[in-house]
């Protein structure tokens, strides 16, 4: 397979940076083709702004989605963004490696999403009718591809459990897994999360490295999270609310958007 | 009162940028002292990296939290970060104005949090014992201050409702309200959210501007979201899991962290 591995950590010698290297090495050892986007090494520009749209008239009001669509359509996006879009189109699988900072991904990775997931490319595509509300949530440019988060967390696992004060880790990652990855069509694998990485010694790292390698050996067969496709009949259109009675007895919050009996949780 | 108004939008003429101006003007008209952080105008650097810690030895491994704590302690953080920390200490109330991009705040604002909320300042503070797990979630440097999000959303309100495909807006904003603001001690007011801002005309804007002005007239009396303090007896220490039986019958997911009968929802 072709795998794109994205890293958002400023220190290659960090636990997170080391796990990134584990992924790259293991995937190559398995015979996969690998490309990488090491955002800090690339000095990735995080802020989306006027300079992203060189063709936008100096005095024109910047409307980010439409400027993004126009520049994507006329192939006038900046070179760094075009290269990332090409890598995403090339890949069968995309891994996002990042530390959980303030309960979500680092700014530099958020800015990669904002700048690379252009309108007309990753959103704002497909037919809009009374049966189909655009190609999104299960459809879209990345349909047929898989994606997985590899996340390191400083805190304890219990703090991110069902009753933990930080909120359940699957809920914290839902806006990324569902809103950023499933939205433009990826099948999303349960996230690979490692806790208390600051406390782990060399042996602890090796154990975690091996757990990740084992996961990477099954990238093509791991069951994706069973999110409900937007246009598959489960949602009213155009309100996009889940039709009554579809969710299980104990489902609430985000989990109503996962089909009963499907894979829901990270392990 | 002293109010800090933060803006994370690249276009002053946008709906969001215009609402920011409404806030600034209205607060001044009410006689409050106002400072602003217009992140795009300030060319705010979003990525936290080695250059944030000028005293870090060139060959030292960058461990972000500890580098941040050391630089904060020795007052060697960069000038832009120090200025923002001073503004936060000065303010009685902080407003964060931003558009919802990919279901959370823009990268530039996330990077403001990462760089300004240093260890030793906004986290990693307070006594750790078997009764007290640091000053956080209701305690910390910003205790006694209030904060509120002012969020513009392109999509329809229904998509962000309890059964909406995007997930409930209060859940999407929980990592910011609870994890970024309540964590270092802010009392968090229910978020002010405006939907389908791309579709609103001049009259629609004026109606929304007036709704925001009305809210701003009551900044000091609006009931904060009733999050449970970490060290108030509701959580086990050190697992920080909510003790059994405290949540209401219908509470689940994030909502178990809000006290029964307290204010939970944005309006």
Automatic annotation (TrEMBL), chains A, B:
GO molecular function: NAD(P)H dehydrogenase (quinone) activity
Keyword Oxidoreductase: yes
Keyword vocabulary terms for this entry: Oxidoreductase
InterPro entries referenced in this protein's UniProt entry, alphabetically: Flavodoxin_fold (IPR003680), Flavoprotein-like_sf (IPR029039), NAD(P)H_dehydrogenase_qn (IPR051545)
GO cellular component terms listed in the entry, alphabetical order: cytosol
Flavodoxin-like fold domain residues: 1-216
PANTHER family named in the record: NAD P H OXIDOREDUCTASE-RELATED, NAD(P)H DEHYDROGENASE [QUINONE] 1 ISOFORM 1
Protein name per its UniProtKB record: NAD(P)H dehydrogenase (Quinone)
Species the sequence originates in: Fusarium tjaetaba
